[in-house]
Amino acid sequence: MKTFKILTIIGLVSFALFSFTTVIQDEWIVPDKYVNMKNPVDAGTDKAIGKSLYSKHCKSCHGKEGYGDGPKAEEQNGDLGDFSTEEFQAQTDGELFYKSSFGRDDMPEYTKKMPDDEDRWLIINYMRTLAE
Ligand code: HEC
Question: Are 93 and 112 contained in the same domain?
Fold first, then answer.
């Protein structure tokens, strides 16, 4: 009976720890340096370029309107988010820049495919226009 008790406790503790790590993994922590980073590119700059870069690199997963419903969305692990929501738009430009630049898991890294920071800032500005 004692063994049963101990096993139950071990079981509960592992379950608690497991749930805890899942929560931590879900939250995408952005370093302060990026959270507070100022967007150096004015919202009105090269809007057409921002849009076409988004179409070329991001639309296949995130979808035309950013709803997370692109043709490749089904195959992705992880929450694609919905770029039209207030929750998404509440993030700072720097947070979006960090996530868009470095990715994680199925979200690709773009620092090599798009080595010019300005291109990624143009995409951030474009994502702002997807707010509803
Ligand atoms: C191959 C599919 C794929 C492509 C292409 C892709 N993404 Fe993602 N993206 C993901 C996945 C999957 C996640 C969720 C990652 C996670 O939470 O671990 C994600 C998450 C994000 C997030 C965070 C969403 C949130 O709610 O905070 C941003 C911002 C983002 N992507 C921007 C971009 C940008 C900008 C591009 C194009 C330059 C792009 N993505 C291209 C798959 C993709």
Answer: yes
